[in-house]
Design goal:
By secondary structure, the chain is mainly alpha-helical. The chain contains 19 helices and 2 strands. A two-stranded antiparallel ribbon has the order 1-2. It is elongated, with a radius of gyration of 29 Å. 38% of the residues are buried.
Length: 371
C-alpha cells in the first residue's frame, strides 16, 4: 500500500494523468462528482480534497501498479508544485522488488559483519528496520524482518553491547519471537544458541552451559550448529575451571568440524582447545593447538585476528620465559580491537592483563612494566 503526506488538486491531477483517465472516467473511478475533479484541475495546489476524499485517493494510488506510481511521481516532478517532502510517495508495505533489494542488502550485511565494518552494516539494516512495521508485512516480509533483527543482534554482540536496551539480547529475543510466530523451528533454535552466547558473554556461565548442552543434541539444528553448541559447552566449562573435561568436549566438536569440512570452525576449535589446555597448566599442548589455529585460521576478519592474538598472548604470558612476547601479542590485539570498536575483546584483554598483574598501556610506562 502507498499513501502521500497530503493531497491537493495538484496530486489528484497527477494521479489522473498517471492512470491515463479522462476527468469523467477518473471521477467514476473514485466515486466522486465530475465537478469535484474539475475543481481540482482548475485550482491545483490551491485546493484540497475533503478528508474522506483524501482517503479515497490514498486507496486509488495504493491499488495502482508500479508503472502508475512511476508516472505519478514523474508528473509531480514536472509540475513543479510544493516541495517533495510534502507530497512524496511513501511505501507503507513492500513490493516484490523491495523484497529482492532487502535480501540483497542482508547478504551485504553478512559480509560487512565478517569484516567488522559495523557502521556500514548498521546503515544497511537501518534502511529496512526503520522502514516497515510488522503489521504491514506478509510472511516473507516478516521473515526478512526477523533476519534483519537477528543480524542486528550479531552486530551489537560483536560491538560488546550484550545486555540492556539496544543490546544483542534484546535484538535476538525480538527475532526469536517473529520466527516463532512464523513457525520456523530451525531459526528459533539458532536464536536460542545466540542467546546462550549472550548469557556466556555476560558472565552467566551456568545458564549458558545448560543451554549449550541441550542445543548440542537438538534436532532442530543442523549438524554444524550442534557442533558449535558442543564447542561452546567446552568454552563455558573451561571458564568454570573444568579444563580437562572441557578439552574432551571441544575435541569431539573439532572432529565434527573436520568431518563437515568446515575449516574456519575447525581453526576456532583449536584456538579454544589451546586455552583449555592453558587453563589446565599444559602449556606445551596449549602452544601446539594455538600454533595450528594461527596457521590455519582466516586472516580476513579483524575479530578473528584479535581473538587469535589474544589467545596466543594469554598462553605466552603464562610462562615467565615468554612473558614479554605475550605482552607484545596482547598489545597488538588491543590496538586492532580498538581500531574496529571491539569493546568486548578489549575488556577481555584488560582482564588478562590485570590477572597477570600487568599495567595496561596508559596506566604506566610500557618499558617499566616489561622489565
Amino acid at each position: 500500500m502507498a499513501t502521500v503526506h497530503h493531497w491537493t488538486g495538484l496530486e489528484a491531477r497527477a494521479l489522473r494523468l498517471a492512470l491515463r483517465m479522462s476527468v469523467r472516467a477518473f471521477a467514476e473511478h473514485l466515486g466522486v462528482a465530475v465537478r469535484t475533479v474539475s475543481k481540482w484541475e482548475k485550482h491545483l495546489a490551491a485546493t484540497e480534497p475533503r478528508p474522506d476524499t483524501q482517503a479515497i485517493l490514498d486507496t486509488a494510488l495504493a491499488r495502482a501498479d508500479a508503472a502508475v506510481h512511476l508516472r505519478f511521481e514523474t508528473f509531480l516532478s514536472e509540475a513543479g508544485g510544493p516541495p517533495a517532502t510534502t507530497r512524496r510517495v511513501i511505501s507503507a508495505g513492500p513490493r516484490a522488488w523491495e523484497y529482492e533489494s532487502w535480501t540483497d542488502d542482508l547478504d551485504r550485511v553478512v559480509v560487512a559483519l565478517s569484516r567488522q565494518h559495523f557502521a556500514f552494516a548498521d546503515n544497511l539494516l537501518g534502511r529496512w528496520l526503520n522502514r516497515f512495521r510488522p503489521p504491514e508485512l506478509d510472511d516473507k516480509g516478516l521473515y526478512l524482518l526477523a533476519r534483519s533483527t537477528a543480524l542486528l543482534g550479531d552486530l551489537k554482540r560483536d560491538q560488546g553491547a550484550v545486555v540492556g536496551p539496544l543490546s544483542a539480547q534484546l535484538a535476538y529475543a525480538g527475532a526469536r519471537s517473529v520466527f516463532t510466530q512464523l513457525d520456523i523451528p530451525r531459526r528459533v533454535a539458532q536464536l536460542d544458541l545466540s542467546l546462550a552466547v549472550v548469557a556466556e558473554m555476560s558472565g552467566r556461565l551456568d545458564t549458558a552451559a545448560r543451554h549449550y548442552e541441550h542445543l548440542a543434541v537438538d534436532d532442530r539444528l543442523a549438524r554444524r550448529d550442534r557442533a558449535r553448541a558442543r564447542l561452546w559447552v567446552g568454552t563455558a566449562l573451561s571458564k568454570e575451571g573444568e579444563h580437562d573435561y572441557a578439552a574432551r568436549v571441544m575435541l569431539a566438536a573439532t572432529r565434527d568440524f573436520e568431518d563437515l569440512g568446515e575449516p574456519d570452525d575447525w581453526s576456532v576449535a583449536h584456538q579454544k582447545l589451546a586455552l583449555a589446555h592453558r587453563g589446565a597448566g599444559d602449556l606445551n599442548k596449549a602452544l601446539h593447538f594455538i600454533g595450528i589455529a594461527r596457521s590455519t585460521g582466516g586472516t580476513d576478519s579483524p575479530m578473528q585476528r584479535v581473538r587469535l592474538d589474544t589467545a596466543h598472548g594469554h598462553i605466552l604470558l603464562s610462562d615467565p620465559a615468554t612473558r614479554d612476547d605475550g605482552l607484545t601479542a596482547l598489545d597488538q590485539a588491543a590496538k586492532l580491537a580498538a581500531q574496529y570498536g571491539l569493546s568486548h575483546q578489549l575488556a577481555s584483554i584488560e582482564s588478562i592483563r590485570k590477572t597477570a598483574g600487568v599495567i595496561s598501556p596508559g596506566g604506566g610506562d610500557q618499558g617499566e612494566r616489561r622489565q
